[in-house]
Amino acid sequence: MRTLFYGGDIVTMERGGTAQALLAKDGRICETGDLDSVRTDAGACETVELGGAALLPAFIDAHSHFTQVAYSFLQISLNGARTPQEMQTRILDFARKNALAHGAWVTAWDFDPADLEGGKEFTLAELDALAPQYKLVIRHKSGHMGWFNAAALAALGVTAQTKAPDGGKIGKSGGKLTGYMEENAFFHYLKQLPPPDADALAKAYRRAQDLYASHGITTMQEGMCTVEMLPAYQILLARDILYLDLVVYTDLQSFDDAQALIEQAGGPHCRVGGVKIFLDGSPQGRTAWMRASYLGGDDPGYCGYGVMTDEQVYTAFCFAAQRHTQLLAHCNGDAACEQFLRCLARAEVRYPVLKALRPVMIHAQFLGEDQIRKAAALGAVASFFVAHAYHWGDVHLQNLGKTRAENLSPANAALRAGLPFTFHQDAPVIAPDMLETLWCATCRQTKHGVTLGAHQAVSAEDALAAITRTAAWQYGEEAGKGTLAPGKRADFVLLDRNPLRVPPQALRALQVLATYKDGKAVFRASGAGDAHAKRLAPML
Hints:
By secondary structure, this protein is an alpha/beta fold. Helices cover 33% and strands 23% of the residues. Mean pLDDT is 93; it is low at 529-540.
């Protein structure tokens, strides 16, 4: 049965911009255009009257960590915790509600020390006091660092004599462990934590998927799959949980095994997109690798640090070229961006195909204008975490000063230079909220109300392109996704208002009323009311 959508703004993101009607059948778009013509061609069909709402291409997640989003439903959120006492209460309440035995592992996430009253650095004794009967791990909100209590350190075999892996740090003071770790050291020991129960993980995967759908997203990303995660993927795929599309990027060591598993059991919604590497850390954690030093701190001249050598980065590009697959590289600081560009330039001499494979600079937070031109010439893509302007803009002002902080996520400069860019939220670092991201890209306001680099703001239309049309292109899926055009998949998001017809400040207040994947409603907002019932029904 064909279905005709009409009665609201249909924002196609194609040239021409809008249509009065859209006709879909069997999960694909058949036609868009003026209502009379499309209705005539539709013949007998179901109809969905939009009631003034706006139908757009579904949003595309350009970078996140799907499994970590799922894990977050099995962990304790410390978001916004103001005191150690509040942290302890949340942790112990979680342990009690989940009937955890003494000595069990407990993981907390979404913690930012900047939220604590007065700010503080934890001692190991203070960490132990938060959960005295458990092995405790606390993940920093950035995902790049965290804390282990003494019981956790002992279980992992970490002592004061343990050497940190290259590109990482194990915190010590006076020759004793502090419980703090960052970058490669933190990642190394996180991998050694026991996996969750299979049934609990399957349920968490479903909840994670529902979260993406509630934000209008129908294509998600696994931003770093490692060999330790493959058993979780066996559960995900064997239980046929996916109803949204998932593109998986692996570390170099896991690529062949992950590809074999997903090709065998992945089904229509899961594929391997390429490989992922890390070049540095996070700017709010002062581990991003910068060309100029951070302000303040106890180490004058400190610029953060890289986590891979040039030869390792070059080898990764060669690996991607040899397998004809895409490479994503986490590079926040401008020094890390420079490493990406010089290694890509070297690799493209040997493997020109890399340009066609669309290598992506993930975050590229402090990509310089001189580097933007180089990136465009090399065929790279920048995926900006532009919501940093709101969530950590005030911290960047403190760490980097006004001039550098204002050039965070330089979307407008990229636009002018012809460098393709997308936007993402790096979930679970923050929720995969595309509407907040639209607001951040157009208004660039910090939590304290400071406008952070108005010259790098873009229009609502350009911001929408970054999470629809260009995001599909980043994935090499522009033939089937990203715009509303005949032949493309019927992946839609229904918003209460047209984002191109509201002031930029109002973008954050828009609401997702429904999300359609291949023509079927996979999310419908609660409390929409009887007036919206018809348009929210899964009609295809």
